[in-house]
Amino acid sequence: MDNAQFNTLYIVIPCYNEEEALPKTAEVVLTKLRALEGAGRVSPQSRIMLVDDGSRDRTWETIAGLCDGSEYFAGVKLSRNRGHQNALLAGLMTARNHADLTISMDADLQDDIDAIDKMVEHYLAGADVVYGVRSKRAEDTFFKRMTAEGYYKVLAKLGCQVVFNHADYRLLSRRALDALAEYGEQSLFLRGIVPMLGYKTATVEYERHARELGESKYPLSKMLSLAADGVMGLSLKPVRYVLTAGLITLLLSGAFLVFALLGLIWGYPFLGWKLIVFSIWFVGGLLLTSLGVVGEYAGRAYMESKHRPRYFIERTEGLSAAPETEDNA
Ligand code: UDP
Ligand code: MG
After folding, report:
1. Residue 231: pLDDT band with limits 50, 70, 90
2. Is 308 helix (H, G, I), strand (E, B) or coil?
3. Is 318 in the pocket of ligand 1 (CB under 6 A)?
4. Is the CB of 95 inside a 6 Å radius of any atom of ligand 1?
5. How much is the average pLDDT of 182-202?
6. Which of 16, 109, 209, 311 for mutating ligand 1's site (highest number of atoms within 8 Å of CB)?
7. For ligand 1, atom 8, which residue shows the shortest CA distance?
8. Between 211 and 329, residue with greater pLDDT
9. pLDDT at 328
10. Is 273's pLDDT higher than 80?
11. SS3 295
12. Strands 201-207 and 47-52
């Protein structure tokens, strides 16, 4: 495996309205790829694959320009905005037909580019999956850090196997990509699925920087929806918690019944109306919340049952094969 001939690396970068960040990112990543190639770690067929996730600015024009200017770049244009996870999947599944290994990263250089060297070394030493793990989040806002780290802890409590402080900066071998291709779910949460693949894994620590160019494409709403995909896509525990809450309420109501009967027997004036109002609202709220949780799962099951395609590729640049749709990917 140490023969660079066979180590074609595709660095896959999803881009949504990234015209500001792309030129600098392209330059930095190209320098890194050339250095790896020069050192004989990856083959000369290695590429930087930029996936345009239906951007509304000049992202695709920028990508097409890069592909024209250098054979090291390849471009994939999705037919519309499908979100980060789908864009990344589209890139990985397209790269799978050309690469021996892929590394996915964001377009904003927040993740330390030098971690790539260590990832490739782990691959050469036999790892199929290498996770980039943030050792420090000092540059993130307090809110983002607290919510993100709290979220990893909640997922772990729910029994989901996720790598703490790892997002989507990771290396995947072709074998791991082939396994990933078997997962057909709509609501995709890659960092929850990848640990299910198995194979030999390794981790690489790096410091996460602040975004320098352009602004975050992950508003709170998208973060929450990704978080929900993570929890509900990976775990059935919330539904079981509903059952537990129901049983506890039932027990409580039994205790109240005993209390009321005793009050009748001994002639105590029994509890004020405030407590009755409280219990009505409490049980009502519990019922509605439970219905919501169960409904959310039912709705997700319904959406998944349609098996809708997750993305369409409108065109590609700098790739030898014809554009691939999900079906023939
Ligand atoms: N992204 C995407 N589609 C989207 C939103 C984001 O492809 O609908 C890409 C974006 O261009 C970037 C990566 O996903 O390369 C991560 O987004 P961002 O850096 O804005 O997220 P943050 O670092 O703020 O969590
Ligand atoms: Mg970012």
Report:
1. confident
2. coil
3. no
4. no
5. 90
6. 16
7. 83
8. 211
9. 43
10. no
11. helix
12. unpaired
Q: Could you tell me the two tokens for 212?
A: 């320098």
Asked if 84 and 14 count as a contact pair (C-beta separation under 8 A), the reply is: yes
Q: Is 297 in the pocket of ligand 1 (CB under 6 A)?
A: no
Helix (H, G, I), strand (E, B) or coil at 128: coil
Give the pLDDT of residue 137: 65
300-314 pLDDT per residue, tens: 889 888 889 999 999
Q: Which two tokens stand for residue 318?
A: 């700098």
Chain position carrying tokens 């929890």: 231
Closest CA to 223 of 297, 146, 136: 146
Q: Quick: pLDDT tens for 82-120.
A: 999 999 999 999 999 999 999 999 999 888 999 999 999
Residue that is written with structure tokens 């709290």 in the block: 150
Burial of 296 (0-12, 13-18, 19+ CB in 10 A): middle
Q: Is 13 exposed, middle or buried (0-12, 13-18, 19+ CB in 10 A)?
A: buried
48 and 85 Cβ atoms separated by less than 8 Å: no
Task: Decide whether any atom of ligand 1 lies within 6 Å of the 216 Cβ.
Answer: yes
Question: In Å, what is the CA distance from 212 to each residue of 8, 18, 20, 22?
Answer: 30, 12, 10, 11
Q: Tell me the pLDDT band of 225, cut-offs 50, 70 and 90.
A: confident
Angstrom CA distances, 314 to 52, 60, 77, 90, 268, stand at 10, 11, 6, 11, 76
Collapsing DSSP states into helix, strand and coil, what is residue 297?
A: helix
Ligand 1 atom index nearest CA of 15: 11
- Which numbered atom of ligand 1 lies nearest the CA of 217? 20
- Distance from Cα 202 to the centre of ligand 2, integer Å: 23
Minimal CA–CA distance to 116: which of 195, 218, 37, 24? 37
Residue 23 corresponds to which tokens in the numbers above? 């030129």
Backbone angles phi, psi at 209, to 5 degrees: -95, 175
